[in-house]
């Protein structure tokens, strides 16, 4: 499935969560249960409310700090001026430890750490400091931490395999924050959204918060809507009232029409010339098992000093880029890697189980652009055939033909 985001009012962490919960209301109860399990500050209260603005109906995602009735900087009020946040700051390394040691699923942790790390890198660049020295002020408040954890959980459980976004509203002007008066979009937001297309719709103020920008940067969405069947939509509202329009983020669920799925992946490469074949084989299989790794291949060539080198090429999901890089550096002797984001197009695959000789064999079937159908039995199931090569080949063809007939029958 594909999710398109319409930034009608803008985007902030709470607006993103509200829009996805309105789009997929079945996720609301499990998300709130997960947040309770995190054993957050007892003064933190999370709830989801129905909301209406300019005739549109949807949801608001509210995180309230009961002790001081605090509203978040990075909530969709789009206002850095909440000075009462100054004593609710956290260091990046403290937030990182909290997320790492939390009971969250590993895939959710990877998303949350990835989004926060993008923010930390943007802040470190602004202040010319090391990433481990970054202290989050407004974004370090509990409500914003919960916004990012919630967004990370929803990204995983939405099961969307591609994202797109409309043109981004510029906003403009200035706002006050703990550091004083700063331009809009905020410097961190500008750093995070390099390469995105902006428009000026005439409405001033902060339309995209740093947390909203980090979520967009993490998703790496295209700015072209996917062609397909529209299933449903959800609306996530913010606090601020905008002149002439609702302060809303719309999420639209689309089933792509094409048999081709276009998506972004990350390619990671490194060259190794000082590991034995045995140790490199072990490392390769360890890396292959990491979440988000799609494939790993190895090629041999000549490197510097005329030595043989083994080049590892790893394909992984963009959200798992940093974790995969860490896996390479932790499991090989490589001192560095090169990586880049690339586009790929893949055919939709359909799985089927074909009964044969009192066994069930898993087969993948696909429809190609020229409308031809092809099937292939999974290698591990092919290994179950206790036959010689010729007999095995004959049975393989029979099972794959049955899978193709099943596909046509559907």
Q: Segments where pLDDT lies below 50 for 5+ residues?
A: 68-87
How would you classify the helix and strand content by structural class? alpha+beta
| SSE order, one letter for each helix or strand | EHHEEEHHEHEEEEHEHEEEHEEHEEEEHH
Number of helices: 11
Percentage of β-strand residues: 25-35%
Largest sheet report: 4 strands, mixed
The mean pLDDT is 85
Shape label: globular
Number of domains: 3
Q: How helical, in percent, are the residues?
A: 25-40%
In total, the number of strands is 19
- The separation of the N and C termini measures 20 Å
Main-sheet strand order equals: 6-1-12-11
Calculate Rg over CA atoms: 24 Å
Secondary structure layout:
Layout: E1 2-6, H1 13-23, H2 28-37, E2 44-53, E3 56-65, E4 90-91, H3 92-100, H4 106-127, E5 135-136, H5 142-158, E6 162-165, E7 168-169, E8 174-177, E9 180-183, H6 187-192, E10 198-199, H7 210-219, E11 228-237, E12 248-256, E13 260-272, H8 277-288, E14 293-302, E15 308-316, H9 321-331, E16 338-347, E17 349-356, E18 359-367, E19 373-377, H10 379-382, H11 389-409
Parallel strand pairs: 1-6, 7-10
Antiparallel strand pairs: 1-12, 2-3, 4-5, 8-9, 11-12, 13-15, 13-16, 14-15, 17-18, 18-19
Helix pairs in contact: 1-5, 3-4, 4-5, 4-7, 8-9
Record keyword descriptors for this entry.
single chain, 11 helices, 32% helix, 3 domains, 410 residues, Alpha-Beta Plaits, 19 strands, four-stranded antiparallel beta sheet, globular, four-stranded mixed beta sheet, alpha+beta
